[in-house]
Amino acid sequence: MPYVSAFLVLLLSIVGSVLPTIIYVLVVWRIDRYEKEPVQLLTVAFLWGALPAIAVSAIIEIATDAPVVVMSQGHHELVSSSFIAPPVEELVKGLALLGLLWLARAELDDVLDGIIYGSIIGFGFAMTENVFYLFGAWQEKGFGGWSIVVLIRAIAFGFSHATFTSFTGIGVGLARYEKSALRRWLLILGGLSAATVAHSLHNFFLSVPNLCLLTIFVDWAGVSVVFVVILLAWRRERAWIETHLAEEVSLGVLSQLQFQVIASRRKRLKRQWQLLGVSGLSQLRQWRKLVSAATELAFKKHQLDKMGDERRNVAAVEALRARIVRLRQGLGNDMVADAAS
User: At what angle do helices 85-103 and 52-63 cross, to 10 degrees?
Assistant: First the structure.
């Protein structure tokens, strides 16, 4: 393959991997209804999946390749893809979630955050992996083979790696408020085991011609399980907001109508459109900052209830209350935010 041609193929392979990934990441971004995760942490998670996780997994898999060839007796590809790659890749991807749990646990509120970070790591991993698969497919089978791989890996199985690592994220999210070290590790290992099993089943069915269609069933069954967990997490997060912000009304931090609007996603969205039409972008930005600070306050109070003054939760709560008061003053007239909904 000429040098220029190889460069163009590589460029197309990158585009074919990156564009679907952007769409999927935006979908996951929208899942985080109440408190968006910091972009910096999401970027770190994505880059971990896209670069170190791929490199470390490849090194380990290459190192174990020779023993697998000897032991598998003609079933090298099946054994390697189904029983070696899944635990290696899920463990390496999961290390980033463990890092978040120990180093940035203040930003990890529950299983929903675990799913979001796990998905972002998985999308990063899949994106880089797809570049290599697409480039190889063009070399072997030309544009036709390349197109098929795009449809399979980037579209049909676009959520696969994200779903696998989401299971690890669920385990980490459940472990977030567990005070017993033993139960904490059991939850984390349970999530990692579920991720490994789902990944192994995906690769196994994909490696057996007569069973390859089952791969789609396994993958979308996994997506369905994660989606149910997301629905339950939304319900629980809304309960946190209703419970913990009710007290702020009696303290004078929020007005009753502000509390009612912030506690309802529908009313929040409606209020944003009202402010945009009546007061313009400036008031809308102030109102959104108020909603964000109030939501963060509710989540921080939940952390305080569960874990005490971990990571200076008391100081964080007081700082958020002061910020909300300043934002209300910046809005000028509470009726700007409290107009009938």
Answer: 140
